[in-house]
């Protein structure tokens, strides 16, 4: 089969499709660092410092739901090795803290009461464990992973990073990710797994919410070698390699790279960033502006990825009221922007090539009222669109460009007007009279299947 057609047929699993539909969920960094005012603990912290006297996970859930988030991922264990549940395998946990509360259970139960999904982050790097840096550590880690997978109900997400250091014996730990993945598949088969190398979700390459110009979910297996390879090698695979590739690269799934791959996988990107400069709560920090958070939403959820926005509890165990207000503002703006479609009739123009279809959108309102055009491919068929543009029909027969983009994937939010701008380009008599726009696919890897076109 032609390699481009193979690339077009790389498909997501059911778990990946369900994850894409989540779109926006919360990260919650909480632990000894909250009380030591640090970002990375060293594992020597006294368990007695962890004492959130007003812990209220329902408050967390209420705040993240107000922003429109559909799930919560808790740092069950960070690099310091302190466990937010009473693990049987270590003394460095909440069971030896003054509060003695199982934070993982309280968070999981609050999520279920609030109607959102629950997941956890379990740091492979453990700076407290005596086993770290030895083969025995993988047994220790799997024991703790099994506790979390079997004692806290349904888990939608297991989040790993690849932070690694030296253990007490001066040796670096070799993580047995295939073994970890097998446990997750056994006990929580509906859960997706985040890791730099797959198998399901990969890192966007930064923690600032900075997008690439083109974010592909279909990427070389050299990048995500834990994923399922769905194609043969590219036509240039025997003339070079992709050993240089990493998530921080600006070009990943684009055509020049995949031609050199030895096989492609479906591994979409997650944007993980914090609502404030640090990941853990620091009193002096303020949340990012509404503008920055909204723009990050557009360039993550609106660019074929999902957004995992961290909101850290304070030393009382509550989300900071400054962050709560910002989340409410963000949710309000998202509802105002995407809560109600504009009436329109979408039709596919006849006679177009299968890889270059044109869609006409007849509006019931003037073009001047259109702020966003939202495109979605049917990714169950594969991600295929390489480039597209949006144009408007104006009085007098002119057809002017409004937007130009690259890939679409699960969702592409095309912003025609900026809600923060004092003046927008679609203001004027012509835009008030225009009532038709076109979406033209200018390049695709195979037959295009758009699932939806919506106008807001």
Automatic annotation (TrEMBL):
Q: Can you tell me which family this protein belongs to?
A: Belongs to the glycosyl hydrolase 29 family.
The name of this protein is alpha-L-fucosidase
Which keywords belong to this entry?
Glycosidase, Hydrolase, Signal
> What positions does the domain Glycoside hydrolase family 29 N-terminal occupy?
18-335
Asked if the record carries the keyword NAD, the reply is: no
| One MF term in the entry's GO annotations | alpha-L-fucosidase activity
Biological process terms in GO annotation: fucose metabolic process; glycoside catabolic process
């Amino acid at each position: 089969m032609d390699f481009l057609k193979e690339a077009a047929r790389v498909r997501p699993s059911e778990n990946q499709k369900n994850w894409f539909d989540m779109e926006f969920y919360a990260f919650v960094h909480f632990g000894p660092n909250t009380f030591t005012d640090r970002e990375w603990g060293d594992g020597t912290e006294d368990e007695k410092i962890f004492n959130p006297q007003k812990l209220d996970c329902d408050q967390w859930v209420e705040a993240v739901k107000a922003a429109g988030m559909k799930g919560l991922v808790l740092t069950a264990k960070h690099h310091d090795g302190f466990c937010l549940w009473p693990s049987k395998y270590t003394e460095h946990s909440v069971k030896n803290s003054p509060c003695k509360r199982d934070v993982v259970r309280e968070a999981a139960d609050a999520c279920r009461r609030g109607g959102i999904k629950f997941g956890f982050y379990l740091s492979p790097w453990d700076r407290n464990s005596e086993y770290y840096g030895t083969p025995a550590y993988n047994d220790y880690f799997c024991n703790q992973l099994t506790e979390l997978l079997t004692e806290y109900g349904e888990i939608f997400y297991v989040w790993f990073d690849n932070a690694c250091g030296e253990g007490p014996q001066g040796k670096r730990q070799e993580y047995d990710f295939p073994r970890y993945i097998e446990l997750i598949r056994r006990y929580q088969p509906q859960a997706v797994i985040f890791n730099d190398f797959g198998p399901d979700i990969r890192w966007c390459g930064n923690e600032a919410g900075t997008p690439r110009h083109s974010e592909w979910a279909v990427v070389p297996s050299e990048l995500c070698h834990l994923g399922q390879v769905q194609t043969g090698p590219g036509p240039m695979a025997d003339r070079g390699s992709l050993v240089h590739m990493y998530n921080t690269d600006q070009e990943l799934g684009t055509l020049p790279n995949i031609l050199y791959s030895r096989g492609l996988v479906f591994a979409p990107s997650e944007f993980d960033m914090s609502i404030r400069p640090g990941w853990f709560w620091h009193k002096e920090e303020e949340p990012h502006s509404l503008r920055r958070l909204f723009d990050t939403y557009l360039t993550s959820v609106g660019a074929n990825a999902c957004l995992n926005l961290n909101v850290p509890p304070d030393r009382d165990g509550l989300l900071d009221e400054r962050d709560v207000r910002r989340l409410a503002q963000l949710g309000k703006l998202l509802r105002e922007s995407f809560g109600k479609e504009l009436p329109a009739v979408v039709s596919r123009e006849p006679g177009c090539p299968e890889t270059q279809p044109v869609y006409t959108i007849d509006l019931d309102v003037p073009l001047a009222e259109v702020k966003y055009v939202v495109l979605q491919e049917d990714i169950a068929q594969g991600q295929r669109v390489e480039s597209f543009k949006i144009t408007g029909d104006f009085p007098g027969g002119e057809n002017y460009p409004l937007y130009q983009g690259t890939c679409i994937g699960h969702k592409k939010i095309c912003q025609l007007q900026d809600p923060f701008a004092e003046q927008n380009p679609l203001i004027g008599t012509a835009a008030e009279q225009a009532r038709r726009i076109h979406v033209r696919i200018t390049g695709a890897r195979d037959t295009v299947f758009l699932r939806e076109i919506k106008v807001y």
